[in-house]
Design a protein that fits this description.
The chain is α+β, with helices and mostly antiparallel strands and 745 residues long. Helix content is 28%, strand content 14%. It contains 19 helices and 23 strands. The strands form 6 sheets. It has an 8-stranded mixed sheet with strand order 1-4-3-2-5-8-7-6. Strands 11-21-22-12-23 form a 5-stranded antiparallel sheet. Helix 11 (324-337) packs across helix 17 (588-607) and helix 15 (548-564) runs antiparallel to helix 17 (588-607). The protein is globular and about 75 Å long. The termini are far apart.
């Protein structure tokens, strides 16, 4: 009987009533909970909780998650009962965030101020302040602020809003957001913040601007990890602001090559007289101005100067040319979902790893009650480690004893790179009408997800037994792996090996003897049904899933921004293809954020093996990047290895099931010959379901989207024009334009 009662209880719980999406979000924010915290507690993804709160198209939780979610909302409703309609605060339209707002401050009401104004033509009603998390500082100590369009002034009859306390869940130290774009409007210096807020800036010089930012602007971002540090405020200076503060609008060729202003520049001298310091990169496109920390107090402001090419057009598009308010929105969305930019997208990608896994933490109190800095488990620590010789790029100090012009082969050098492979078309493929490219979403991020990587220094082992769970580099001969007969799951499959790239080399060539490989590559050889016998290895016994949090943060940022652009997870294949068509045109500004997020993934991984950048470097000498704990070519190699293997696994399953083989592969893009122009013309969907383990259309990392379609005759003409039967058509499939322009990848 008890089992029947349990079944009845479960049935009732599966239909637990839930409040509307707006109320769900209100309750969470009122208690100061982030989407991540709720998702962790309920053991679901952040995007899932965000979908439950979506006003436009809310999703509904099911099963035990629904019961737990309903319980959470009931308890929060007791703590924060909804106010009567007459007491609900009214937010001025101009102060609302038109895109995706920072979490947990989404759709926050504008903070208090001395000059909070309505948008031109609108009347702002007096508001009742929500209960604050902490007592807000006196209004007199805050900067003047407005919530208006750049050229708007308060129209006759418009009323000032009554002061409101800091909204619940918002850190009062950073109530104005993570950053501001400083501009000159109507002769006054103003700072455009996220959410439409505009602050009056009284500072007349760069040193005064730094002082104002730290004392009055209330800009910054809370730390992403318990032992971490809060993000420093970011100021973006427009051309008008540069002129106001005595800085050049553009750098001279000499300054551009040096990446900074000369020490003799008057603004650099002003900072020195005011006892402010610059980092080693000086006053350049991403300048950091600071004073040494005293205890836990940090005094640091970062500057971003778009007209000095701080925002790389390959990654940020035309963001640097946007008006101030729009630029604040773009950078604000990125900051709230990824982190406050710390430099280029690549630099920020690397900094995000450290922000999520700080190298040190505070110890437990000793017998005197003092805490000390100690290693933070799961991090890379604060000291760099040398790579294994096979992992080191040419010119690294660990290779200084090699002859000067020695060229290392596969048996001396780990060479895990992305695919760049193509082959001639078969006679049957030439009867098709189209070439269709599909592209793996966030492929390298997906390759990092769940990957175990080394955290410490490598250990050298002779004649090791291969362990697929042990990260490292292995010297092994994989030339015996025959792709014409491989295991797929538990079954052997017969394939045409001549039409497949080898999974073991970037160019798709079959290896000819022993070579160094990262763990995922060797593990795939075992998965295909072949024995491996390494003769040597460099393994890392101290290891962990260092990149999981990094992946989750970037995945959620990508999915949330794509959802804002109308592309949602779990869409039907045809609906997904339609939603992806011209998605950038729906909100070009948010499309810039998507581009920057993807560049953060690739650039951050690339920084793990950053090469010398001038600096007067000579082979055999250390270069600046080697001093970072995050200079880890082995981690980069493992991610690339796993990404390439993930793609090959899908290609093999697709070939075994359909008899179709790729014509070209470039990194995460694969081209097939097809009878029709759509991916659905060759992907084996049945009743809306994809081939298990094969390609699946969707926006999630690891799934694929349509990259582009060209006529088959286009491919033949291009290869004939360049007299290259194996020209990689995946490089040009997107729009058919054959060019060697650098796209930042």
């Amino acid at each position: 009987m008890s089992e029947l009662f349990d079944a009845v209880d479960a049935l009732v719980a599966s239909r637990s009533p839930l409040p509307p999406a707006e109320e769900r979000k209100r309750l969470r924010v009122a208690h100061g909970l982030t989407l991540d915290e709720v998702a962790t507690a309920l053991k679901v993804r952040r995007a899932t909780v965000s979908g439950w709160e979506s006003v436009k198209k809310p999703t509904e939780p099911r099963g035990p998650e629904r019961e737990a979610y309903a319980r959470l909302l009931r308890q929060l409703a007791e703590l924060y009962p909804a106010a009567p309609a007459s007491e609900q605060p009214v937010t001025p339209p101009s102060a609302r965030f038109t895109g995706a707002a920072p979490d947990p401050t989404e759709a926050r009401t504008p903070p208090t101020g001395q000059a909070l104004e309505a948008t031109a033509g609108a009347t702002t009603q007096n508001t009742q302040p929500p209960a604050p998390v902490a007592a807000a500082p006196a209004a007199a100590s805050r900067p003047a602020r407005t919530a208006r369009t750049p050229s708007a002034s308060r129209p006759p009859g418009a009323k000032k809003a009554a002061p409101a306390s800091t909204p619940a869940g918002v850190d009062p130290r950073f109530e104005n957001g993570p950053l501001a774009v400083v501009d000159v409007a109507d002769g006054k210096t103003v700072a455009y913040c996220t959410g439409g807020l505009i602050l009056d800036v009284p500072a007349k010089s760069i040193p005064a601007l730094v002082d104002w930012t730290l004392k009055d602007a209330r800009l910054g971002q809370p730390k992403l990890s318990g032992p971490g540090k809060d993000a420093d405020p970011l100021l973006v200076l427009t051309e008008a602001a540069l002129e106001r503060y005595g800085l050049p609008v553009t750098l001279t060729e000499e300054e551009r090559l040096a990446g900074r202003l000369p020490e003799s520049h008057k603004v650099v001298k002003q900072l020195a007289r005011a006892e402010w310091k610059l980092t080693k990169r000086g006053f350049g496109p991403w300048a950091r101005i600071y004073r040494p920390a005293t205890g836990s107090e940090r005094a640091c402001v970062q500057l971003c100067i778009p007209s000095w090419h701080a925002l790389d057009t390959r990654h940020w598009g035309k963001a640097g040319q946007l008006p101030p308010a729009e630029l604040a929105r773009v950078l604000g969305v990125y900051a709230s979902r990824v982190m406050t930019p710390r430099g280029s997208a690549a630099v920020t990608g690397l900094e995000l790893m450290t922000a999520l896994h700080p190298p040190t933490r505070a110890s437990e109190a000793d017998e005197t009650g003092k805490r000390h800095s100690e290693h933070n488990p799961g991090s890379l620590g604060k000291n760099p480690v040398d790579p294994a010789p096979c992992e080191a790029p040419d010119g690294h100090p660990v290779l200084k004893d090699l002859p000067r012009f020695h060229v290392r082969g596969p048996a001396e050098k780990l060479f895990e790179e992305a695919y760049d492979w193509a082959r001639p078309m078969t006679d049957d493929e030439c009867t098709m009408r189209h070439l269709v490219g599909i592209d793996v979403n966030m492929a390298f991020a997906a390759g990092a997800n769940g990957l175990t990587v080394g955290l410490g220094a490598p250990t050298h082992v002779k004649n090791p037994t291969f362990d697929p769970k042990l990260p490292g580099s292995w010297l092994v001969d994989l030339s015996h792996v025959d792709l014409s007969r491989v295991k797929i799951g538990k079954e052997w499959a017969q394939l045409d090996a001549d039409l497949l790239p080898s999974p073991f080399t970037p160019k798709g060539e079959r290896p000819e003897g022993p070579a160094w490989y990262a763990t995922p590559t060797v593990a795939y050889a075992v998965e295909l049904g072949y024995e491996v016998r390494p003769t040597e290895a460099w393994v890392r016994r101290e290891n962990g899933r260092y990149l999981d949090g990094w992946y989750n943060r970037l995945r959620d940022a990508y999915l949330a921004t794509m959802a804002d652009l109308g592309v949602h997870a779990d869409m039907e294949p045809a609906d997904f293809l339609a939603a992806m068509d011209s998605y950038k045109d729906r909100d070009p500004e948010l499309a810039l954020v998507v581009s920057a997020i993807k560049a953060t993934v690739k650039g951050g991984l690339g920084k793990l093996r950053e090469r010398p950048r001038g600096e007067g470097w000579r082979p055999g000498e250390p270069w600046r990047a080697l001093s970072r704990p995050t200079w880890r070519p082995d981690i980069r190699a493992a991610v690339i290895s796993r990404t390439r293997i993930n793609l090959h696994r899908k290609i093999v399953k697709h070939a075994a099931f359909t008899g179709q083989y790729p014509i070209a592969i470039l990194s995460d893009c694969v081209v097939y010959a097809a009878a029709g122009p759509s991916p659905l013309d060759f992907l084996p969907y049945r009743d809306g379901k994809p081939l298990p383990g094969g390609f699946k259309l969707g926006i999630n990392p690891g799934l694929v989207k349509h990259e582009g379609t060209q006529p088959l005759l286009w491919g033949e003409e291009v290869r004939e024009r360049f007299n290259a039967p194996e020209l990689n058509l995946a490089r040009y499939i997107k729009d058919g334009t054959v060019t060697d322009a650098d796209n930042g990848e």
